[in-house]
Design a protein that fits this description.
There is one protein chain. Helices cover about 30% and strands about 20% of the residues. With about 450 residues, it is of the alpha/beta class.
Length: about 450
């Protein structure tokens, strides 16, 4: 099961970015992040109020909120802190739900949750940057805006209309075109797009380690290399079993997202795991990179198989898109990114892409984050659909608030049943063909438009 290496079981099939052999790709984030706190494996049995499975953004933010409230909390992580998508993503902080515009979102969740989801998504970046400031987390955080550019004329009208609808909820997005857009991007490929001023960027592994340190300082206990192999109820307590000990608690939060396995039967069937990949350069000469994203915005486009990019403060370029996992369990697919980067930014022709890495994220059927409470005392938050840097921190906070007594119907996310994706097996088998077809459509539209 290539896609079932989770934060709970079978994580040995994945390559840790800090332990990558020399002949395999390496992560820029792992190479430049500050040291993590000295967390070791769970040494024996433990009694707490809340057990959290997964030391990524969701689990760590929940742990921080709970510990600050005086709750006894233990975090169990199969790898290292931020080992999964939290430490391997593109680091873009994009404050808008993907795929679903306001009208589509209303049809999915109704008017009450439309307002709530619009509010938390559009404010998610502000919330994250405030968290970073409050805890003085060193993660190269900057909030210079996010450019979402149109890959062809066909999408211009819907892109602009969606921005105008989001502006009714306070998004403050602006439409940019022509020479103004060319000056902001440094590319002549795109001729129109939307600027979301609240967007920004972080060094994601540094962020994960910083939130872990803040949670630890607040009293949370974090245990790494402690995969949970079983989860069961014992009267009014939950028991999470690891290789060296068991944790008993009144509540359990599963925060495993794209690395979700079968600890809760059926949960992995509610998501489709996909593999974003990134490439990055060493610092580039100013004459090479001067025109590219000169005001520090991040950028992504409207293709079905998107690109996303950013310029680092030290003049590195980071470029990302869609990859895949091979039969050996390695994430590959970086070569097409190099070609795409040169197509969009000709200034980058001939540069060395010294870093190549990737991870796994979770796509849900309705393209919305999912909050589940399948049994009393058991919570699940996952499915950020490519917006996880900001939205996972919101979800972590909301899960903690539920533990602390918030009523389910007061939460910004609807509490939904664990419902498997229809025909998921067929979708998994046909995923490669579907992505290839989407890339072809993108190329045709880009050529025509």
């Amino acid at each position: 099961m290539v896609y079932s290496g989770s934060n709970m079981i079978a994580f040995q099939h994945w390559t840790h970015p800090m332990e990558t052999p020399a002949h395999l790709p390496k992560s820029l984030w792992a190479a430049t992040a500050p040291e993590a706190i000295g967390a070791g494996a769970l040494p024996g049995d433990l009694d707490v109020d809340v057990t959290i499975v997964g030391a990524g953004f969701t689990g760590l933010r929940a742990a921080l909120v709970l510990a600050q409230a005086g709750t006894r909390v233990a975090v169990l992580e199969a790898g290292d802190i931020g080992w999964g998508a939290s430490g391997r993503n593109g680091g873009q902080v994009n404050p808008m739900l993907p795929f679903n515009g306001p009208d589509r979102l209303k049809s999915l969740v109704g008017p009450r949750y439309l307002d709530r989801l619009a509010e938390v998504s559009l404010n998610s970046a502000d919330e994250l940057f405030e968290l970073i400031r409050t805890h003085q987390i060193a993660c190269d955080a900057r909030q210079n805006g996010w450019l979402r550019v149109d890959h062809c004329r066909k999408v211009q009208a819907s892109s602009r209309a969606n921005a105008e609808r989001w502006n009714q909820f306070g998004a403050n997005m602006t439409y940019v075109s022509g020479s103004d857009l060319h000056a902001l991007t440094g590319s002549k490929i795109y001729h129109s797009g939307v600027l979301a001023p609240k967007g920004g960027a972080v060094q994601p592994l540094a962020l994960a380690r910083g939130v872990a340190r803040a949670a630890h300082n607040a009293g949370a206990q974090i245990f790494t290399h402690s995969p949970v192999t079983a989860l069961a109820q014992d009267r009014n307590r939950w028991v999470a079993t690891t290789r060296k000990g068991r944790v008993r608690s009144h509540w359990v939060i599963l925060a495993t997202n794209g690395y979700t396995g079968d600890l809760l039967p059926g949960l992995s069937q509610t998501i489709i795991p996909i593999c974003p990949v990134q490439i990055a350069t060493d610092p580039l000469p100013d004459e090479v990179i001067r025109e590219i994203l000169p005001k520090g915005q991040t950028i992504s486009d409207t293709r079905r198989v998107i690109m996303y990019a950013r310029r680092e403060p030290d003049n590195r370029m980071v470029f990302g898109g869609h990859g895949k996992m091979n039969r050996a369990g390695e994430i590959v697919g970086h070569d097409w990114l190099i070609k795409d980067a040169m197509r969009i930014f000709p200034q980058l022709r001939g540069v060395d892409w010294s870093y190549r890495w990737g991870g796994t994220i979770a796509i849900t059927q309705d393209r919305l984050p999912h909050l589940h409470e399948p049994k009393p005392g058991l919570l699940v938050g996952l499915g950020y659909n490519g917006r996880g840097v900001a939205m996972s921190h919101v979800m972590g906070r909301v899960l903690a608030e539920r533990v602390l007594g918030a009523a389910p119907d007061s939460l910004p996310f609807p509490v939904t049943p664990v419902r498997p994706i229809r025909f998921r097996g067929s979708q998994m088998l046909g995923k490669g063909l579907a992505i290839g077809w989407m890339k072809l459509l993108d190329r045709i539209e880009t050529a025509i438009g």
